[in-house]
Amino acid sequence: MSTSADPAITTQVSPRRRRRQAMIFRIVNVPMRQILGLPFRTPLSKNLMLLYLTGRRTGKRYRQPVSYVRHNGTLLTPGGGKWKLNLDPDRQEKIRLSGRDILARPGLVADVSEVNRLLMIMTEANPRVASFIPIARRDDGHFEEAALANAIKFGFRVVRWHPAGS
Fold first, then answer.
1. How many CA atoms lie within 13 A of 142 on its CB side?
2. Assign residue 72 a region: left if phi > 0, alpha if psi is -120 to 50, beta otherwise?
3. Euclidean distance between CA atoms 65 and 121, whole angstroms
4. What CATH number does the domain containing 136 carry?
5. Residue 79 domain-assigned?
6. Residue 158 above 50 pLDDT?
């Protein structure tokens, strides 16, 4: 694990732990897709939704379980994986949310201060979200700005979903 010279900053997640977490998600996502795809609300659907995405180059259809938090009529999702590369702000995507299919338009947020603010909203509403975000945090819980800027540089985003009709 790498550490910072600033004692107010917590340690970052090691690359080995991130690889292990990615492998676990690949395995766990198989039954999660089945459970989240059910036509009724399940305990998992309180914090997880199922995205139906189309590959940007292949056209292949994907179902991606992601965590979400409701905020001011939108759904907020941490976008650290490659799945977000298939998103187009001009195209609505189908989402299975609490057993119902909805359409929502994605907005990718890349501004460091706005991402930090949205991540704080997300982790306050659902503390488990922090376990999906491998970005160093300060002792006060806020995300370390340099680490967050670096993650954004390499593609991390917050996806702000705007459901159709809202």
1. 11
2. left
3. 20
4. 2.30.110.10
5. yes
6. yes
Give the whole-angstrom CA distance, residue 99 versus residue 161.
17
Does residue 2 surpass a pLDDT of 60?
Answer: no
Spatial CA neighbour of 52 closest among 16, 22, 93: 93
**Residue 12's pLDDT is what?**
54
Taking residues 48-52, report their average pLDDT.
96
In whole angstroms, how far apart are CA 67 and each of 112, 123, 166? Answer: 20, 11, 20
Domain membership of residue 4 (yes or no) is no
Number of domains in the chain: 1
Alpha helix positions (H), the chain: 15-36, 112-125, 145-153
**What 3-state DSSP class applies to 55?**
coil
Is 112 a member of any domain? yes
Q: Which domain holds residue 156?
A: 15-163
Residue 3 lies in a domain: no
Residues 104-137 pLDDT 10s: 999 999 999 999 999 999 999 999 888 878 888 9
* 93 band by pLDDT with thresholds 50, 70 and 90: very high
